[in-house]
Design brief:
The protein is α+β, with helices and mostly antiparallel strands and 204 residues long. It has helices at 4-15, 18-21, 26-29, 44-72, 75-100, 108-116, 121-124, 146-153, 162-176, and strands at 126-131, 137-144, 180-186, 198-203.
Length: 204
C-alpha cells in the first residue's frame, strides 16, 4: 500500500498540482532517460513504433479497466465510473500536452486544434479537423476508431460512448481554454452507419 506522501504525489501528477510538485512543471516538460535504457539507443523509427505500442497499450488498459468494473458491478456503474475517470484524465492530458509543447493557455480554438493533434488518440485513430469559413467554429472528427472498429469486426453493436465522450471532450477543451464551448455533432449511439464521433467547438 502506498504511503500518504506517495498518494499525494501521484494525485498531484494526475491533476497537475504544481504547488505540490514545483512551479517549473519539469515533471511534464522534460524526461530523463538513463544511458543504458533501451529507449535511449532507439532510432526515430523505433521510437515511433514504441509510441504506437504505448498508445495501443493505453487504450487496451482503458478497455480492461472498463470490463473489470462491468463484470464486478454492471454496465451502468462502469459507464458512470468511466466518465469520472475520463474527466480527470482529459484534464491531465491537456495540461501535459500544453506544458510539453508550449501551447499557450487561453489560446482559443487554435490552441485546441494543436492540442487535439497531440493526444494519444492521434497515434492510433484517424482523425481530422475542419474550420468554418469565418474561423469561428472548429470541428473535430474521428474517422476511424479502434474501439468501435474492433466491435464491428465481431459483429457487435457500437459502444454507446456519447455520454463519456461528451465529458471527455468538454473537459479537454475547457482545460485548454475555459471559454470554449463543446457540442456533440454525432457519436454512438447517435451516429449514422459508418460514422464515429464528431464535435464542434466555439468560443463563448
Amino acid at each position: 500500500m502506498l504511503a500518504v506522501s506517495e498518494v499525494q504525489f501521484w494525485h498531484a501528477v494526475l491533476v497537475g498540482n504544481t504547488a505540490y510538485l514545483g512551479t517549473d512543471r519539469s515533471y511534464v516538460s522534460s524526461m530523463s532517460i538513463e544511458p543504458n535504457n533501451a529507449f535511449a539507443a532507439m532510432t526515430r523509427d523505433d521510437l515511433l513504433r514504441a509510441l504506437e505500442m504505448f498508445a495501443k497499450n493505453w487504450l487496451a488498459h482503458d478497455g480492461c479497466w472498463f470490463l473489470a468494473v462491468e463484470e464486478r458491478f454492471d454496465m451502468e456503474t462502469a459507464v458512470d465510473l468511466d466518465a469520472r475517470s475520463w474527466k480527470r484524465f482529459a484534464a491531465a492530458e491537456a495540461r501535459r500536452i500544453m506544458a510539453t509543447f508550449h501551447i499557450p493557455e487561453g489560446g482559443g480554438l487554435e490552441s485546441l486544434e494543436k492540442a487535439l493533434s497531440l493526444r494519444l488518440y492521434a497515434v492510433i485513430n484517424s482523425q481530422r479537423t475542419e474550420w468554418s469559413d469565418d474561423r469561428q467554429r472548429l470541428r473535430f472528427f474521428m474517422d476511424i476508431c479502434r474501439v468501435q472498429e474492433a466491435r464491428r469486426r465481431k459483429d457487435l453493436p457500437d459502444f454507446p460512448c456519447k455520454s463519456v465522450g461528451t465529458v471527455e471532450f468538454e473537459t479537454f477543451a475547457a482545460t485548454v481554454d475555459p471559454r470554449i464551448r463543446t457540442t456533440c455533432l454525432h457519436c454512438p449511439p447517435d451516429a449514422a452507419p459508418g460514422q464515429y464521433c464528431g464535435w464542434e467547438f466555439t468560443m463563448k
